[in-house]
């Protein structure tokens, strides 16, 4: 369980946009690398990143370097520079910066070492973390669905239409597909807005909510009415249509 939680935390950190990747001590000038969009785990990075420095208030320009080669010189506060790892070859790289101050000092920053990975490698690493979590979820879903489907075979048509019934501990729900009331399974998979359940009458899956006893009784009553052949007066329109049909036939 501890290991699972740890993995979850790492996964969240890796997926959080804007998370600070590396902050290392570099004397007066500190180099900061932060993710704006992409992947970062340990010293592996992929995507869009911001590089910045923190240092004296009188900095006038900052030159950022990758592997000793200038990336950019920024002369406006906050001296931030955005780049994409796609602009560089995959593999090991190191970032550094030099800053000029108004008082004529030249400051050198610490070095940040990274390993730029390809998009697919980044996705693979993410999948390695997310994969087991999704796997566990999938197993939970399969078990919950099985727990609902298996007893259903036995319970199918246990209640005749219109029977007043007991809905048990989980209460009853009304199928949005066929309108018939059924007992909710205690194993129903919670889907935030309701439980994912299979209607024992029409066999369709839907997200159900617990219905009030009044609504359930009304649905039972509707079943009784639905089971009986409709006996009602023809409407004026239907009568007229019938007369037209008859006059056509007699012609
Ligand atoms: Zn149904």
| Rg over C-alpha atoms, rounded to the nearest angstrom | 34 Å
* Helix count, DSSP H or I runs of 4 or more residues: 4
Q: Which architecture of the largest domain does the CATH hierarchy give at level 2? A: Sandwich
Q: What is the name of the CATH class of the largest domain?
A: Mainly Beta
Low-pLDDT sequence parts = 12-26
Q: What is the ordering of alpha helices and beta strands?
A: HEEEEEEEEEHEEEEEHH
Q: What integer is the average pLDDT? A: 79
**Which descriptor suits the 3D outline?**
elongated
Terminus-to-terminus distance: 84 Å
**Count of beta strands:** 14
Features:
4 helices; elongated; 9-stranded mixed beta sheet; 251 residues; 32% helix; Immunoglobulin-like; binds zinc ion
Short description:
With 251 residues, the protein is an alpha+beta fold. The chain has helices spanning 2-15, 119-155, 213-227, 236-250; strands at 20-23, 30-41, 44-54, 59-66, 69-74, 81-84, 91-101, 106-108, 112-116, 172-174, 181-183, 189-190, 195-198, 205-208.
Structure characterization notes:
There is one protein chain. The protein is of the alpha+beta class and 251 residues long. The chain folds into 2 domains: 2-125, Immunoglobulin-like, CATH 2.60.40; 149-251, no CATH class. It has helices spanning 2-15, 119-155, 213-227, 236-250; strands at residues 20-23, 30-41, 44-54, 59-66, 69-74, 81-84, 91-101, 106-108, 112-116, 172-174, 181-183, 189-190, 195-198, 205-208. The strands form 3 sheets. Strands 1, 2, 3, 4, 5, 6, 7, 8 and 9 form a 9-stranded mixed sheet that branches. α1 crosses α2. The longest helix has 37 residues, at 119-155. The radius of gyration is 34 Å and the shape is elongated. The termini are far apart. Bound molecules: zinc ion. Residues 175, 177-178, 180, 199, 201-202, 204 line the site of zinc ion (ZN). The site of zinc ion has 8 residues, from loops.
